[in-house]
């Protein structure tokens, strides 16, 4: 599927969140997602307003906002309409089905009510999907499984990744793809088993940076070209590489977002041979 255009792939998807994401990418000519990992609502909304024109998706960690209230969500939704981007709360659920269903729908954040996409660690097994889908599927939400992580020494390798892909294949109505570093088409197939031609999982990839190779806490970065062209991933997720250390530098942040967007789209165009 990675050699087909985002537009073509949107036509074959069944999940509304997957369709929305692919159509947004095509419309905005952007495969850039910005991860806005700041702790103050004021900075959070300001950064989103600045990078909004350049992104297909905004990724949040809503639980790190120290002055959170549901007003933030209304403003996030307004910005999502203003700039035409999809919302992905990076919650990384990892508990039993009953608990994740409650964490997803309830509590302070009520994630299922506003986030088009969320994600889960496959570690509990298929029950994590069952739990989350009970709250998310009726609302047209989509789920990503963390098949691989970007960090040094991650345990998400080999059989773990294969099992994650098998879990996703069994729930293609709700699981729209993976947080991963590579494509997953051939992964987890039994010997002699052929890949289903219609299977098309989206690969969203964090650990992207142009300047640094990593940070002091185990993060590892690859470039947009490595991620989109060489590894065939669909969306590149960039955090500190774009919002940097000073949220008031809005011109710099906008310029960085534009640069990443252009590099990501050029890598995609080389991949699918854009006309
Ligand atoms: N993230 C990773 N690696 C993973 C999964 N998720 O970095 O394997 C998330 C982090 C952070 C963002 O939680 O929000 O992606 C990366 O931020 P950065 O670009 O500032 O390193």
From TrEMBL:
Coiled-coil regions listed: none
EC number: 4.1.1.23
InterPro entries tied to this protein: Aldolase_TIM (IPR013785), OMPdecase (IPR014732), OMPdecase_AS (IPR018089), OMPdeCOase_dom (IPR001754), RibuloseP-bd_barrel (IPR011060)
Single GO MF descriptor: orotate phosphoribosyltransferase activity
Protein name: Orotidine 5'-phosphate decarboxylase
PANTHER family (alphabetical): OROTATE PHOSPHORIBOSYLTRANSFERASE (PTHR19278), URIDINE 5'-MONOPHOSPHATE SYNTHASE (PTHR19278:SF9)
SMART domains per the UniProt record, alphabetical: OMPdecase (SM00934)
Catalytic residues of the enzyme: 90, 92, 95
Gene3D superfamilies membership: Aldolase class I (3.20.20.70)
Keyword Magnesium attributed: no
Organism, scientific name: Lyophyllum shimeji (Hon-shimeji)
Enzyme class: lyase
Pfam families reported for this sequence: OMPdecase (PF00215)
